[in-house]
Amino acid sequence: MIVMSVVTALVLLALVTQAGIVAVQRAFPPQGEMVDVDGATLHVVDIGPRDAGLPIVMLHGASSNLEAMRRPLGDIVAKDHRVILVDRPGHGWSTRARRQDSTPQIQARMIDEALAKLGIERAVFVVHSWSGALGARLALDHPHRVAGLVMLAPVTHPWRGGVGRYNEIIATPVIGPLLAYTITLPLGYFVTEAGARNVFLPQTMPDGFVQDSATPLLLRPREFIANAYDLVTLKEAVAAQVARYGEINVPVTIIAGEPDKTVKTNIHARPFAATVSNAKLIVLPDLGHMVQNAVPDRVKAEIEAMIGRIVPAQAAAD
């Protein structure tokens, strides 16, 4: 009886999950175009004037999608600049063929290929959190594509501890998918908002953020598993690239806060800034992890200041 009850409960939860997937995808449909690359199909939203000079590519962190960079930052910047927002492989409406294609190195290659197909030769990259490691990898492996790098609360170095036991379980074969396709979505509806509020601290999460940022898309099994793989493989990935950071020679601006309890500034932003020769570090007091939401006007000002330095220097070089 106990076994039958468990099996019945799992079947019911699986059916609820499938219905939830349909509902979530109808509520948050894709907003841009799909670009096929080797190993993935990337969802890209292109906003702002096309003839506004150096384009800006925005890359979101973990547990999110391109809407987390679009509102409000992307929309503000797009008033004067071309902004390309990308769902990282496996996130939002982007897919990837292999869950294991989770490292900054692999995702950098995919994004570089997508931008080439879109005709984006060089751009300023604005990266948040997990994508700090991705932005660094783009600058290392694809320097021809990166004119400058603006990093918001970036992950760049190994840290003590893990990334949460639940992520480790979800990334485990068999048991992970079993949980993802049964309990994750129903449970997520009850805990998503509280989790998002914690990431904003000490700032207050804006009203409607969870819906405006299409965060419920994360609860779909395939994305939740991809996100878990991204997180559990990140520490080893950044450990492998730390020694190369001195090779980065494009302009870099880092904006981080204290106290950011999600990505510690002393572990990531400060050491990275000390290693990269052309880095500018801005540490703001009483600023949490969601830099793009808390100080979007400051971020825009730093992006424009960087472009103001890059364009004359490039003209002189030409």
Defining traits:
318 residues; alpha/beta; 9-stranded mixed sheet
The amount of beta strand, in percent, is 15-25%
| Percent range of helical residues | 40-55%
Largest sheet: 9 strands, mixed
Uncertain stretches of 5 or more adjacent residues? none
Structure classification = alpha/beta
Number of strands: 9
Rg, alpha carbons: 19 Å
Global morphology:
globular
Number of helices: 12
Question: What's the SSE pattern?
Answer: HEEEHEEHEHEHHHHHEHEHH
What do the pLDDT scores average to? 95
N-to-C CA distance: 77 Å
Q: What's the gist of this structure?
A:
The protein is an alpha/beta fold. It is 47% helix and 16% strand.
Task: Describe this structure as you would to a colleague.
The chain is α/β, with parallel strands linked by helices. 47% of the residues lie in helices and 16% in strands. It has 12 helices and 9 strands. Strands 1, 2, 3, 4, 5, 6, 7, 8 and 9 form a 9-stranded mixed beta sheet that branches. A hairpin with a 2-residue loop joins strand 1 and strand 2 (40-47). Helix 2 crosses helix 12 (296-317) and helix 3 (104-117) crosses helix 4. The protein starts with a helix and ends with a helix. The model has no long low-confidence stretch (mean pLDDT 95).
Please outline the helices and strands.
Elements: H1 2-27, E1 33-37, E2 40-47, E3 56-59, H2 67-77, E4 83-86, E5 95-96, H3 104-117, E6 123-128, H4 131-141, E7 146-152, H5 165-170, H6 175-180, H7 184-200, H8 209-212, H9 221-241, E8 252-258, H10 269-275, E9 279-285, H11 291-294, H12 296-317
Parallel strand pairs: 3-4, 3-6, 6-7, 7-8, 8-9
Antiparallel strand pairs: 1-2, 2-4, 2-5
Helix pairs in contact: 2-12, 3-4
